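Let's practice the habit of predicting before peeking. Look at the sequence and jot down your guess about where helices and strands might fall. Then scroll down.
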Amino acid sequence: MMNNILLIDMDVQNWTYIIVGLTFALYIGIAIWSRADSTREFYIAGGGVSPIANGMATAADWMSAASFIGMAGIISFAGYDGAVYLMGWTGGYVLLALLLAPYLRKFGKYTVPDFIGDRYYSNTARTVAVICTLLVSFTYVAGQMRGVGIVFSRFLEVDINTGVIIGMIIVLFYAVLGGMKGITYTQVAQYCVLIFAFMVPAIFISIQMTGNPIPQIGFGSQLADGSGTYLLDKLDGLSTELGFHEYTSGSKSVQDVFFITLALMVGTAGLPHVIVRFFTVKRVRDARKSAGIALLLIAILYTTAPAVAVFARTNMIETVSNTPYSEVPPWFKKWETTGLIKFNDKNEDNIIQYVADPNKNELIVDRDIMVLANPEIAKLPNWVIALVAAGGLAAALSTAAGLLLVISSSVSHDLIKKVYNPKISERGELIAARISAVGAVCVAGYFGINPPDFVAAVVALAFGLAAASFFPAIVLGIFYKRMNKEGAITGMVVGILLMMYYIVKYKFGWLDETLPGEEEWWFGISPEGFGSIAMMVNFLVAILVMRFSPKPPSEVQDIVEYIRIPKGAKKPVEH
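Done guessing? Here is the structure:
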């Protein structure tokens, strides 16, 4: 009996050690069991993954720290405007599954640069694609390592930098040892962990606030206090009282919402670490099946995220706004030690003034803590709080591992094997892949320690880079036989450089003494949405250059024709 009481009363840190420790042991055990012994196993898991397993792995690979931690966090602060992330990322996955995945699987290569190098019959095109892959992947992985650091800093009570280093060691172990084979089956386990960790507190809080156990319905329901007030109406009132715009109304311009959504959609369809997942199944039919399964599994989290955002925002405002600092709950003090929530008593009255006016606001909240702090704010059991920590780590590590594999395979297979040393042995290539993975982990750790922004924004920039570089080259490579290497290379170079210029100028202000304001954005489009413009420029430049350069070889045009024709169909007779 005493042992049971002790187990129930354990603090969050002990529960975190237990739950995170068990999940890490599971991931490492799977990596040892599924060790890659060949380059085919290291790059594409041997090409024999079942559609169900690949669907779960794809969902985990796709639902990164940006989805688990960042998306609900950004929606909780942006309200209606945050819907662009839901629309863009979900719509983009549909675009990828229907438009690109089956054809890329039929082409049958290991990586996106491999496809581009062979489709555009050029090692120059391959090298440009590798550079774009590294830029996209390192930008994306920075957000994941940042998420890992945030989780560790709070729940294991270490600083963020130490948390990033711990995450680097874990990812290094199972990514380097197991390759895609180890990562695939680890991601199956990580999906189960992250979706359970996301849904359990959401269900608890939905019942607590509205009496409805289904979060997707709960956040649009009346409060359980019998007042007859709808939860969203209450949040609107709380927001306007503090000077913020109504939660359910938007402040972004229509064109910016459109371009951000488009950039996220086409960026999704060009992400190399997601595309490579469709090379791991046996048949084209399996690629379609796994895409459909992944979409259903992703929808569970994506339809719940807006509810989590509303629950977290409402509870946070009610808990800390106009509260004497001496009376703040324990969770506030614990998160304060991480530096992710700060109280600056400007008028020295010891009362937290949380308002929209930056001159009067005394509370700074990092939006990336909202999902992780949500169970604590709602006073849920300690084991639920620890479970959310394990889920956040699962989401960040699953995507980080997929990105690191893409980075290492781009260096070892696409650069070393295909460009610089075609005669390298399979064993030598496998060693090069593992060494590349080690180097990639170190660089990723640096970006995790020195992130350019909060998790969701960093990831949004990665999508913009993918949209600006890969999407036109892949789409034209599949659907336009006439597209040649000159057009594709020029388009990718112009697109990625234009996007990088815009990010550097308007996101970081590196080209100016001060960061330019929104009024200076081109066409009123934010850096997160400018990938759409860069993509259009890529398409335009590629087609123009193609018009004034030689046609691709006939054998390349035949390959394009082949990957577009369904199995068993007769080739149309040309007149």
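How did you do? The first strand starts at residue 341 and ends at 343.
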